[in-house]
Amino acid sequence: QVTNELLEIAKRLNAPLLATNDSHYVLEEDRGAQDAMLCINSGSRLDDPDRFKFDGSGYYLKSAEEMRALFKDLPEACDNTLEVAERCNVMFDDGEDGAFMPQFACPEGWDETSLFLKQVEEGLEKRYKGNVPMDVLKQADYECGVICQMQFCGYFLVVSDYINWAKNNGVMVGPGRGSAAGSMVAYAMGITELDPLQHGLIFERFLNPERVSLPDIDTDFDPEGRMRVLEYVADKYGHDKVAQCVIYGTIKTKQALKDSARIMGYEFSVGEHVTKALPPSKNGKDASLKEIFDPTSKRYAEAREFREMYESEPDAHRIIDEAKGIEGLIRQTGVHACATIMGSEPITDTSPLLERTDGTVTTTFEYHTCETLGLVKMDFLGLSNLTVIRDTLRNIERNGKPAIDYREIPLDDKETYQLLSRGDTLGVFQLDSDGMRSLLKSLKPDNFNDISALIALYRPGPMDVDSHNNYAKRKNGLQKITPIHPEVAEALAPVLDETYGLIVYQEQVQSSARILAGYSLGRADVLRRAMGKKKPEVLAKEQVPFFAGMKEHGYSEEAAQAVWDIFVPFAGYAFNKSHSAAYGLISYWTAYLKTHYPVEFMAALLQNERTNKDKTALYLGEARRMGIQVLPPDVNESVLEYSAVGDVVRFGLGAIRNVGDQPVADIIAERSGPRGKFVNFMDFIRRVPLSALNRRLVESLIKAGAFDSIDPNRRALYQIHEAAIDSVVGLKRKQAEGQFDLFSDVDGGDAEDMGDAGVTVPDVEEWDKKTK
Question: Minimal CA–CA distance to 169: which of 238, 231, 244?
Answer without folding.
Answer: 231
